[in-house]
Design the sequence.
DNA sequence: AAGTGGTCTAGACCACAAA
DNA sequence: TTGTGGTCTAGACCACTTG
């Protein structure tokens, strides 16, 4: 059958059908919850659950007193899961390798300090590590850590990545993420085992708890990397 | 006060607090809904709403009969909204420009045909267009369109992008999306107004309705482009 | 077989925004 | 002021999974 096992999913499917067939065209007001509930023979709460779900997915625009409208141009969202790099490698079937390359305390570059709301000249811990898949370099990690939130004596990154330590030990509440394409300079090319000037995929991420920045990381993937997801 | 206006949000906040403070440590089982409801003095449905929300956000792992556990390594998700390119440019404050460069029917490359579940040798419409910000090239669009779903006589892309026509006229049900870094070849560099060999950011997207592929597009952004979002 | 989350209902009241 | 969605409850039954 077309209808799902649960009533609210059937209601959702029926509403989505009406949107897609333009029985409820873009921009149009749809009947109120109570009417739909009566028509489909279920409780209003069930209709509410279904329509709320469609609204979260971007198909409907709902307002108290204003009623529910079909979105003019549904906003499509792509969701990426931020995986632990080890899992990403292992999932591809390759064996995962990790090498710590550098680990010292350094002065934050002024621009980064500003982004992280730190005074100029602040010193943070800087860790550079290489993640590999089989024998091939997979991703270079260049990370700055707030020494106040990540005590050096409690966080040893010789054997396993800062990524994993942080996930387990410093719950974070927010941050920023950006993707970009970059050209590999000599140092990067040497570490990633690719030609100088190669186009490489870069991810920059800043992680915060409440308002204090915890870590800023730049991940650079070896050439050929693709970040993929499906649209629902 | 810390608690939200609505009861289920207060319950959510309280549960999240217990997770963050490790009162409910990673991997631990938390009390069952009925117990939490009694403790916090609300209905079980209210607790259900709160915990379901935390489970969707990746903090909890719930199973019937198995109870609810705190996720060992919370999966963080990044959500990108797939904007219409015109809006993306306008939002940056620049004036938007659009130029149609090519529009003809061509044979699908074999590899692409396979991905799109089309027979080898199938001919689709191919549209190449440039989006610009002010006087600078912003993004080159190279798109294939299923002629059965996008009739040439009803879809004219001389003045506005296929992107916008599709959003308004062909509701889609799914697809795939991938990001990668690419090196600009001579043709691309010329059209994007950058040096040959530049690292450029590429997006590939395939859009389907039910099971038929509607369109496959490759967007290549001029050097310097960053795709950004915030983590919740 | 039993226990826990998932759903559903009927009715009620609340919150917000439009008139 | 009024109407619509948002939430809440108490109780019930269902569905999945583990023992």
Sequence:
């Amino acid at each position: 059958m077309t209808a799902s096992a649960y009533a609210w999913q059937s209601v959702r499917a029926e509403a989505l059908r009406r949107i897609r067939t333009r029985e409820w065209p873009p921009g149009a007001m749809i009947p109120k919850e109570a009417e739909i509930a009566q028509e489909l023979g279920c409780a209003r709460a069930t209709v509410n659950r279904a329509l709320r779900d469609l609204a979260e997915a971007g198909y409907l625009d709902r307002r108290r007193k204003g009623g529910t409208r079909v979105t003019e141009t549904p906003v499509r969202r792509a969701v990426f899961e931020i995986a632990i790099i080890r899992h990403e490698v292992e999932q591809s079937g390759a064996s995962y390798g990790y090498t710590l390359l550098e680990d010292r305390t350094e002065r934050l570059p002024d621009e980064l300090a500003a982004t992280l709301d730190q005074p100029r000249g602040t010193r943070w811990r800087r860790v550079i590590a290489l993640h590999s898949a089989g024998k091939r370099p997979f991703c270079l990690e260049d990370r700055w850590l707030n020494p106040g939130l990540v005590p050096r004596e409690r966080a040893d990154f010789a054997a396993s990545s800062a990524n994993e330590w942080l996930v387990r030990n410093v719950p974070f509440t927010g941050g920023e993420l950006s993707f970009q394409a970059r050209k590999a300079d000599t140092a990067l090319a040497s570490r990633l085992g690719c030609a100088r000037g190669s186009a490489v995929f870069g991810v920059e991420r800043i992680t915060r708890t409440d308002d204090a920045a915890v870590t800023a990381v730049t991940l650079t993937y070896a050439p050929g990397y693709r970040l993929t997801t499906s649209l629902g």
